[in-house]
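Review box. Two proteins, two foldings.
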Amino acid sequence: MYGYMGKVLRVDLTGEKITEEPLDEEIAKQYIGGAGMAAKIIYDEVGPDVDPLSPENRLVFAVGPFQGTNIPWSGRHAIACRPPLTGIWAEGGDGGFREN
């Protein structure tokens, strides 16, 4: 699980704080990839009554375990949130090679 760099970076725009947390290796194994990790974070941290436009909502950028390697199609990441349009779940992805 070292491709994840073993860390979660949290950026609180309201409180203007940036914090690093250790990545739970068991969660990384259960929710492999950026989409899985993003889904886990949204499910755990954004309750069903959270307004999509409130500071309690999350905008999650998550990468998979092979990000930054030369493995084909490994340079993907997921972006997920609870959007105002549907209020339930949205996920997008992007990819390409990025230097370390």
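Next protein.
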Amino acid sequence: MIKVLTIKNNKSEAIINEIGAYLEKLTLNGKNILLPGNIINPTHGGMAILIPFANRIKGAEYEFNGKKYFLKKNKEGNAIHGLVLDKKFSILKANKDSVSLSYTLEDEGYPTRLEIEVKYSIGNSNLETEFFITNNGNSNAPLVVGAHPYFLIEGYWKINPKKVKKCLLFNKIPNGEFIYYEIEGNIDYDDCFYIGNMVELSSDNINLQIETTDMPYFQIYTGVKGAVALEPMSGIPDAYHNKIGLYIIKPGEKKYYSFIISLK
């Protein structure tokens, strides 16, 4: 049986599924924040966890330390959204306002064994997501950590800061170059940006802030009317090839990332 956990703090509530450590629903100060989602299509709503890479890997293959690794391909022929979306996490600790889940990643498409802990903590009007990553294997490995929150919006939406750096893409894959760019609301995006450790999303119904630790890149995706995915990432898509934001985690090393979603 799949376990679903609820954490609460006054008028705020988060519902977390043990599959993928997936955030199914988030209510902050009585307001629904996320497009409804489920574990069948976890990146179509809610908030999916993207580890050990975020978004696309070109050709679903890469070379690391002289060895080639192969990943599952999507219909475009790329790998996408990491290796833990459908994996069952163990519940380490749960109480009224926080929960910690863990998973040991061992995959033929990845060079080492990773211990992944995801901790959710809910406050009066915010949710903190923390990642504790440990390399318990014998090899160095490439690491990018990300999340895929899909926020409900109404009417015109905008991002602050507006002036950012945008990844240049070819067939949805970054080519490793950036241009200075002003984000305009109410147009379609499936693009990555360097924004920094704080970003605000506002529309007629909502004003949100995301503050990150070591996750300065964001993917903006507008695949559904009335919602915007604003995805914090430690590195950009295809980082296994372009190396931008890529971290090499060594055997025995621990790495920490986090972000806080706050209702303003």
